[in-house]
Structures are given as C-alpha cells and as structure tokens.
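G.,

No rush on this.
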Amino acid sequence: MGNNNGNGRSGFAYDGFQLDKGWPGLDVGEGIDVHHDRVKNLLKALEEDVERLKGVNAGTVAHLRVNGRVTPAHLGDWDAAQQLAAVFSQGHTSLTMSYEKLITQYEAAITVIKASFLNIGKADSASDVGK
C-alpha cells in the first residue's frame, strides 16, 4: 500500500489547521475594541442589502421567479426542446429555492450579529457600573 507512516497514504504530514499569526483579533492585548458606530453602519448596510434582495427589481428572487423561466414556448415544439424545457424548469426551481435559502441565512446572520452587538452593549454597560 505504499508508504503509510502514520501520515496518511500520501506520506505527507498533516499539521492541522493553522491560524495566521498576523490575523487581526487573535491577540486581544488589553481587550476588544468594538467600534459601535461602524457596527451600526454595517448592520444598516446588511439590512438594506437583504431588503433589496427581497424586493422585485432585477437581481431579486421575485424577479428571477417571474423572468428567469425558460418555457417550452421559448424552445420550440419539437420533442428534444420540450424535454429540455423540463430540465430548465427543474433548474429554475432549484436556483430559486437556493436563492430563497441564501436570503433566509443572510437574515439569520444579521439577527445573530444584532444579538451579539446587543450583548456587547449590555456587557459594556455592566462593566461601567461604579466607575
């Protein structure tokens, strides 16, 4: 089976997942500095973006649902075209559903960020008691 010296079949050692030492936030030092105004602006931008995706303009799920279909009439009356139309229909449904799931996850991420930001605010307030 080749050289399997405990490092897998390739023979290369796996050192595990390594973090870049220069990645911001790994070395906390004196604490974490949260720029509240920046976080609020980021949340506002994310909320505006997700609302835009939920709208009806080009690039939205609603627009894709209505205008993204390739119908049998687009392809023609011959047998192969009709079969291809069924494939396009399945693809359209799959894309639309995936897009909707993306938006749902996007909204969930915003909810988590908001909750985290609120908790940071509560912790900041609590740590200021008695100062």
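When you get to it, here's the other one too:
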Amino acid sequence: MIVVENLHRHFGGFRAVDGASLRIETGSITGLIGPNGAGKTTLFNVIAGVLKPTSGKVTMAGEEITGLPPHELFHKGLLRTFQIAHEFSSMTVRENLMMVPGAQRGETLWETWFNRRQIEADERALLAKADEVLEFLTISHLRDEKAGNLSGGQKKLLELGRTMMVDAKIVFLDEVGAGVNRTLLNTIGDAILRLNKERGYTFVVIEHDMDFIGKICDPVICMAEGKVLAEGTLAEIKANEQVIEAYLGTGLKNKVAAG
C-alpha cells in the first residue's frame, strides 16, 4: 500500500531521515521501532504530509503522494495520530467523533437555510455512527463526558475512534501506549486487531513497549540514525546484531566477550 523510496528530511545539517526506504503491505500491522532520535516520528510526519521531504518519494496504492498536505491525504484514507492526543477538550466524546467527517452540509450557510431537513438527517446518521464507534471501542459510557476530562488512555481510544468515522485505509499511530496503563493498552491493542481483521484497516505503529509490539505487529521495522536498519518478525529483530548495537551501543558478541 505504502512504498517509501530513499526518503530524506534534513533540518539544516541534521539528517533526521537519511535515505529511508520501506514498504507497508495492505492489511498489515507494521511495527516501527528504534532508539530515541532514530527518525521514526519525522518519517511519519513526512509520509503524512506534516513535513515536506528534502528528497525521496512516497507512493500509496501506486499513486505518488510525496509532499501532499494532510487534508488531501485524509481524503485518500491516510490518517495519523500523535504522541499527545489532540482532542476538542470542551466538547463531549461523541461530539469529538461527529466533528471528523469533512464537507458536512451544516457547514455551509446555503444548506443551513434551504436544506435543514437533510442536515438533520445527516446529523442523525453521524450520531448513530459515533455511537457505533464508541460501542466498538467499549467506551460508550463516556459518550457525554467532556473529552478534556478523559485519561491519557481514553484519549488515545478517542483518537482511534476518529479514524473510524471516515473511510480510513491506513492509519499511522505514534506511540499509542505512551502514558497509558496496561489495562487500557490491552483494550487499544484489541481494538487495533479487530479493526485490522474485521474492517481491513492497515496500521503502522510506533511504540517502545515491545510486549505490545509483539502482540499486534508483524512485520517489525527497526530504524536507527534516520535509516531502516532491519525488518522481520519481532524475534528476528531482537536477535539482529545491528539492532542490538543500535539500542545498547555495543553488539551482542562484544557483550558476551566482555562477560
């Protein structure tokens, strides 16, 4: 679905992404791991249109999307969440979901004046869709809660719910487990697996929790210093000498010898 070819993103002399190339297969849940500063979030930002690449190419389903802005990618079904949730804190959980779909009739003055009946029908459909999403995510009891009052994990579930309000094809999740307790993280993981298996979502997940990665992701891609270092199953990645060196600063053979 997504092919990244020799992608670069430089900030002055710093090469945050330095010639990264990778492929995300349709229907996969791909884990993206690496030490802090490896370039994972910058790579997400470039693919999702938040940052322009210095050079390189990104295609989605055979169509080049390099440098397209986020709103255009949104309409193509490419969505991205952030390490820190971006909710409308003064609105309810259900209202946050209902805000997601674009080009709603009620947003135009003409439709408001002359097509009120259709607007009301659209709002009923949105309300039903939002309630379905909340039920799927097992947080329907929070539908009328102000989003700003949610816990960190509940906000991450809400962000996942937003992707369900539109025709998402691929979702990039940035540190979905950050600041989330284990119970809610398991709930998030179960929801991702269900969306993948039941609704055909493709996911790419940045995460430092290897247990979480092992539960939901295959394959796993490891980045270091802006480049793709290795790809395979989590077991293969953990056994890879270059990966061990990137994380620990020394290879396994040297550690054994030192021991």
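Residues 111 and 117 are 10 Å apart (CA to CA). The first strand starts at residue 2 and ends at 11.

Enjoy the weekend,
O.
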